[in-house]
Design a protein that fits this description.
Length: 161
């Protein structure tokens, strides 16, 4: 499979950002976050520079994920950062307890999503019920002007292990 775009969601990088009207070098640590640099920024790969940094916001195994673009407002308000995912509602342990006796694999297959998991318990830990609804998170990001929604992507397959 050809790689289209790759981004880490746990990084620490030196970057130049505005602090009280002065551009300064800062060590920006993004844990569970990703860059959302706006159009024209020199650190955005050249092929995306005119539109802004691609921002991948995964949902969960059973719901959609989104592709967004970073904005200049994100540069001003969040040092060019956006969330990287919906975020958990329940711990892994709680999710496994909640879904005891439920075949998450079968439920996903019924929705046309193929699953490959090393252990069945991994699926319960990562089930949709364990996460916030990413569509609501995207509404907040887009509404705040931090990232611009481009498209919604439906999962076809999941690999856990």
């Amino acid at each position: 499979m050809r790689l289209l775009y790759d981004v880490s969601h746990n990084t620490a990088k030196f970057e130049q950002h505005d602090v009280d009207g002065t551009t300064q070098p800062l060590l920006i640590h993004r844990k569970g976050a990703t860059r959302a640099f706006g159009p024209g920024h020199p650190d955005v790969p050249e092929r995306y520079r005119s539109i802004g940094q691609p921002v991948l916001v995964p949902g969960d195994m059973g719901r959609c994920s989104y592709l967004c673009l970073g904005t200049n407002k994100a540069m001003a308000e969040t040092w060019g950062s956006s969330c990287h995912g919906a975020g958990r509602l329940h711990s892994r342990h709680e999710a496994k307890r909640m879904l005891a006796g439920v075949s998450v694999r079968q439920r996903m297959l019924e929705h046309g999503i193929y699953v490959r998991a090393q252990r069945p318990g991994l699926l319960a830990e990562e089930a949709s019920e364990a996460y916030k609804d990413v569509a609501l998170v995207i509404d907040a990001l887009d509404g705040a002007g931090i990232a611009t929604r481009v498209c919604r992507m439906r999962p076809l397959g999941v690999v856990k292990g």
